[in-house]
Amino acid sequence: MTTARSMKSKKVLLRSTVLAGVAGFSMAGAPVFAQNAAPTEEEEQDSDAILDTIVVTGSRIQAPGIVSSSPIATLGQEEFALTQTVEVERLFRDLPIALPGDNENVNNGTGGATTIDLRGLGDQRTLVMVDGKRMVPYDISGQVDVSAIPVGMLERIDVVTGGASAVYGSDAMAGAVNFILRDSFEGVEINSRYRFSEKGDGWIWGDSEVYSLSALIGSDLEDNRGNVALAMDYTDRKGVLLGAREYSRFGVSTRNGPNEGGVPASPDANCAAPEATLFSTGVGSTTTMPTTLDLPGGSLQFRNDGTTGPRCSRFNFAPFNYLQTPQERFVGMATGHYEINNHFEAYGRANFAAINVRQQVAPSGVFGVPMTIPLMNPFLSASARQAIINNVNGALDPANGFGLTEAGVIDSNNNGVFDLADSITTPVRRRTLELGTRSTDYDSNNFQFVVGLRGDLWGGWDYDVYYSHAQAERADVDSGYTNVSAIAEALNTVDATQCLAPGSTTPVAGCVPIDLFSTGFGSITPAMAAANSATAILKSEYRQNIFSAVAFGPAAGLSLPTATDSITVSIGAEYREEIGSITPDECLKEPPRSCLGGAGGNVLPIASQFDVTEFFGEAFVPLVQDHQFAQDVQLELGFRVADYSSVGNNQTWKIGMNWEAVEGLRFRVMQQRAVRAPNIAEIGSPVTTGLGNADFDPCSNGNPIFRDAAGTVQASLIASALAADPVLRDNCIATGVLASRIGLVNDIVSNQINAFGGTDPSALPDAEAASTLTIGGTWRAPTFANMNNALVTLDYYDIEITDYIGAFSPQEVLNNCYVLNQASECAKINRIGGTLSTSGAGVDLFTSNLDFIRASGIDFSVDTDWDMAEFGELSVGVFTTLQLSNESQSSSSTPVTDCLGVFGNDCQPLPQIRFNQRTTWRNGPYVASLLWRYFGEVDIQETQRAATFDGFETIEAQHRFDLSGSWDINENVILSASIRNLLDKEPPIVGDGAGSTARNFGNTFPSAYETLGRLWTVGVKAAF
Q1: CA distances from 984 to 193, 429, 642, 937, 980 (A)
Q2: Which of 302, 615, 937, 976 is the most buried (most CB within 10 A)?
Q3: pLDDT for 147-206, tens place per residue?
Q4: CA triplet 561, 562, 567: central angle to 5 degrees?
Q5: Contact 831, 754 (CB under 8 A)
Q6: What is the distance between the alpha carbons of residues 828 and 839, in angstroms, rounded to a whole number?
């Protein structure tokens, strides 16, 4: 039987960390980090009495006295309890060593999963394991959904910073996260939590609600020869819309910063529509309602009475988007081990996760897709027809190459004049609010089982052999979208009841004409909506098979005369097979943008696989022991050779030293080479259309140098700017903009640009390689007065990845062409009618090996414990990360992108300094803890400064406080409560054009800053 506070006491918490193999120290005073220090004599005796073998994350050697030369951070059960953790991703997002991956606060751009991004190097570069064994990726991108892990089963989480490929293989570039399970649990433990905010209208109280229930059942077998356990987690997370918060109810323009904290002006009644804002405010999307045609002579927007005029409105898309995505999650895990004899212990683990996440964005529509419209379309008024004729004819300039064909005119009567008998092919913009919101439901099912044998061999040697099979299946269902292919047919009609193209007498079967012109909201009838909407399904499958065998033990007779312990080594082999595929339906496959209006691009089938055979070895070599100023000096070595079916052979290695100079003072250094082989998506993706983020099109009316102080394009400014910058002028013309149209063509929409991405079969990416260096030490400082413990850690890390796998950013391509005058980059730009805002236009962004990406910094922590006699115990600690660099370069001819201390399209907010400081008080059955989270100041990327409102160029440092506490009612029941964002601080406002779509929405960066207000969590835990 276990008690509810089985991990409550400091002694037990320390002991569990020692046994964990970090040979370290863990406490709730700091962010419960264990930065492997030397244990005290009392702790060593305590651990030796229980277990004489230490398991170190970051090594496959399990032997007494092993201390890693790499920094290892540990999160323990007490931190899980203090933070009221439901999903482990939330823990990592708050840690100074990580940046947000995919999570509950990513909406447009989510994969419906939660991921971990150590050091801001990308979540595909963090290896995720359970008990030292790989988890299966949730799809072909190679990323792991950590929400598939039941928190109730966790003993602790170890994080190895720096490369770990020599030990664990591919992907451990930034480090490895190892989820250690509770392997000897006995009894029943039930934990229930309810989280809510003080705002909004939830089911019970407030909003932001999360309901969770977990259960853990375990039993020892036959006089402690084994153990079996079963864990189950259920979570129901309610969605929160941007419309539920004042600061995100309306979009804010990053460029000119209007309406911050206020309601934007509305258009006049003849241009009014749901969520319409006055065009001049800059708030919202230019794909709006009523309909807009981007004609050669300038955009023409319809009015609710069927007449036309200049642009009069934008569409406020903000309130329809999720600030917190809904999730329903069920996770189950069963573990067991049984010692047959000293030579054979059988063990196994099986886990299953069924997770559904919903993403939702504003209603669909026609987003600048060129469509053919006969001037005799029955829904066009006479005045609208004449306005279109006047607009197009007024823009024609045959002498300079802009004739009927270039203007998109179909001269049906071949009279050389654009008139009522003709048609015009032009980009159309219209929100289809009549169809409701767009959404994607991500329905995931993951399964994995591991079976193995371990035990003694001979001469102190042990072995571990296991087989792992895992598979992930997903179905992504897109709903609420317009069918742009159907609408293209429905607009090309001269009949109101059947789709009859000009000159044709045969109606298009199944086609229902659609009215986008006669009025505003409501012009699309239910029958029109049904015929011109679409639902699409994307299925994906992933399978992983691993066979691994390792043996480890002392090298008999091999020891140095200066050391008392012998050399310990491990040798092993591993075979891994990865198989992935995605299967889109016919709608999603339609080039270039699928049939879905506003889905971003088409999707083509992928089916690919690779396998790898690896051999590896490690050694811990005691160099000097029990000497003055050299209590323990050990050399740590490792090597792995891998043969990939995809990229061939590669090698990884590590060499490190761990030196305990005097008792309590330890220094360590580790140099490693890590490798990441390309994943299924990176080696097998066909070229498709998607969306990327960019500031503006330099040749368009969005270029700030063409605008006056009021934001209006001026012909005189265009002329003077082009005269001063002939490179811009010449390359605009070379990439398809007529000289007379530079500065007049439409800009990209909502900072999004079409991107043609995928893998070039003739130039597959090779593996990327990293050089990682860590240098640091730990000091168990002398205590005084009533201080029980004082631990100081300091570590420097430097991770440089060369030939990293990725793609140029859209803005890089634009800058390289129009600023740096690189012809190779200009060739990647594809314009239609001179613009990049039209569907089918865009930039080429193929997956390849780029130059380098690098992160370096210093981690510093101080942990102390104080005995306050009858007033209990006080723990005070801080963990700080000083980021020294975070930069990347796509090629030697492109500028370095420096993300240190900045935010923007290429960088999510990355301050130079982050720290967590926790103070915890314990007294008998009571615990209270205050966590101070500091997130330093960041500035806008320099390349975006010119197009950013002055007040949005800097986000000041953020201080957030969390309060938590618990009460042991008795030995079986604990009540707990926590308040996140105690002071109810709102997030910083920078508008919606300051960063990538996935990170920057709701006028802020929801993954980086508190967006939901003050969050309360209450829980009860019972154990028997």
Answers
A1: 21, 40, 51, 19, 8
A2: 302
A3: 999 999 999 999 998 778 889 988 999 999 999 999 899 999 999 999 999 887 666 777
A4: 75
A5: no
A6: 16
Sequence-ordered list of residues with C-beta below 8 angstroms from that of 262, at least 6 positions apart, any chain: none
Q: Are β-strands 365-374 and 852-867 bridged in parallel, bridged antiparallel, or unpaired?
A: unpaired
Rounded to whole angstroms, how far apart are CA atoms 392 and 300? Answer: 11
Q: What single DSSP character describes residue 851?
A: S
Say if CB 927 and CB 27 are below 8 A apart. Answer: no
Residue 469, sorted as left (phi over 0), alpha (psi -120 to 50) or beta, turns out to be beta
Convert the pLDDT of each residue in 207-266 to its tens digit.
889 999 999 999 999 888 999 999 999 999 999 999 999 999 998 889 888 666 578 899
Per the CB < 8 A criterion, the answer to whether 103 and 97 are in contact is no
Amino acid found at 746: N
- Which residues, in sequence order, are CB contacts of 564 under 8 Å at separation 6+? 622, 625, 626
DSSP 862-910: EEEEEE-GGG-EEEEEEEEEEEEEEEEESSTTS--EE-TTEESSS----
- Sign, CA dihedral 848-849-850-853, equals positive
Token pair in block for residue 218: 């375990």
Element (H, E) at 1017: strand 1015-1023
Backbone angles phi, psi at 131, to 5 degrees: 50, 40
How many residues can be counted in the chain?
Answer: 1024
Q: Distance (Å, rounded) from C-alpha 515 to C-alpha 503?
A: 20
pLDDT digits (tens, 9 = 90+) for 509-543: 999 999 999 999 999 999 999 999 999 999 999 99
Q: Is 669 within 8 Å of 774 (Cβ atoms)?
A: yes
Nearest to 778 by CA among 665, 925, 905, 643: 665
871 is written with which tokens?
């007033």
Residues contacting 175, CB < 8 A, separation 6+: 118, 119, 126, 127, 159, 160, 161, 162, 163, 164
Burial label for 11, CB within 10 Å (0-12, 13-18, 19+), is exposed
680-685: average pLDDT: 90
Tell me the one-letter amino acid at 23.
A
Residue owning tokens 């005097």: 662
CA distance 190 to 183: 17
* Residue pointed to by tokens 């802020």: 1004
Q: Are 191 and 214 in contact (CB under 8 A)?
A: yes
**Residue 1004 neighbours by CB under 8 Å, 6+ apart:** 247, 248, 987, 988, 989, 990, 1011
Between CA 641 and CA 662 the distance in angstroms is: 37
- State the DSSP code for 91: H
- Give the C-alpha separation, 410 to 376, whole Å: 13
Please tell me whether the overall predicted TM-score, pTM, comes out greater than 0.85 for this model. Answer: yes
Cβ neighbours of 544 (radius 10 Å): 19
Residue in 185, 109, 101, 184 with CA at minimum distance from that of residue 146: 101
Backbone angles phi, psi at 673, to 5 degrees: -115, 125
Q: Is the dihedral of CA 653, 542, 853, 933 positive or negative?
A: negative
E strand intervals along 677-822:
688-693, 752-759, 768-780, 787-802, 805-806
Cross-strand pairs, 481: 534
pLDDT band at 25 (very low <50, low <70, confident <90, very high): very low
